[in-house]
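Budget justification, computational time. The allocation requested in the original proposal was used primarily to generate structure tokens for proteins on the priority list. As evidence of use, we reproduce two of the resulting records. The first is shown immediately below.
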Amino acid sequence: MAIDPDRAFTPVSIAVLTVSDSRTAAEDTSGDILADRIERAGHRLSHRTIVRDDAADIARQLDAWIADPQVDAVISTGGTGLTGRDVTPEALERVCKDHDGRDIPGFGELFRWLSYKSIGTSTIQSRACAIVAGGTYIFALPGSNGAVKDGWDGILAEQLDSRNRPCNFVELFPRLREK
């Protein structure tokens, strides 16, 4: 990480969304990992919830957080695989369209590259993705603990740190709603 010690750290308000038909709060280990890493990095955990694997339910929750001025970014875990119930990328696509947002293709590409180092060619089954919609960043990670660690430690910890050089997501916040 290229941290510039002369720059001020700006905490980001992050919501964590676990997408699952079977997990409860007591069993949400990937959500626990994200919440812990968010807070240890000095950011604010603004919200945390679990929704079922349903594109409309996921989109509805994301829409609510986009409308909430206390949420700068959302990190979801789960629902990015290839099965019929894995619909998180479709929900993000809907939210992106509804909010005149933008896809962040490099996120999924980099995630799969990092994940390849951990799980080899099995990473091809991941549809990890990211968008910016309504001025809010939304990152969709797979539901495994390893994937959450790869996504946070390898990408998001740096890009959500305002001191990261040569650039980071935080410095773009003031311009995300430009037309």
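The second record produced under the same allocation is shown here.
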Amino acid sequence: MSVAFRRESDDEHKEPAFELPLPPGPNLVTAEGLALIEARVAAFEAEVEAAPDDEARKRSKRDLRYWLARASTAEVQPPPPSGEVAFGSRVTYRLDGRERTVALVGSDEADPAAGRIPFTAPLAQAMMGAEAGEHVDFGGRSEAIEIVAAEPMGAP
């Protein structure tokens, strides 16, 4: 029999399980973001303990390693100053005649559907450092965004 038709085990033909990729750059988080990371660590620790089989345990351990890495590198940022767009700001802006509000948060806190975008997103980067009333360039257009207001996320 040819070597090409022999198989040592079923494990040889499975897709390799890679580690979850860590977002590049610093791991800036808000206080809420750190609480979210800590909650995820606790949830995956519980999943590892309750895993019904080795395969499920391996998946849960991989996710746990990701969240433990994020917890160990988290850099909680102080609230930003009022009126200036910075990490942790809730920003109201006008683009193409439409007014929108977003919060600038860490990568693990981001939820665009809920209006929370990562501080590394192009939109966030374009607005960073601007103050209420300023216009900033975006998408190759000069003064495309008007900053209407910028407040710390916890502000009313």
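A brief technical remark on that second record: The longest helix spans residues 31-50.
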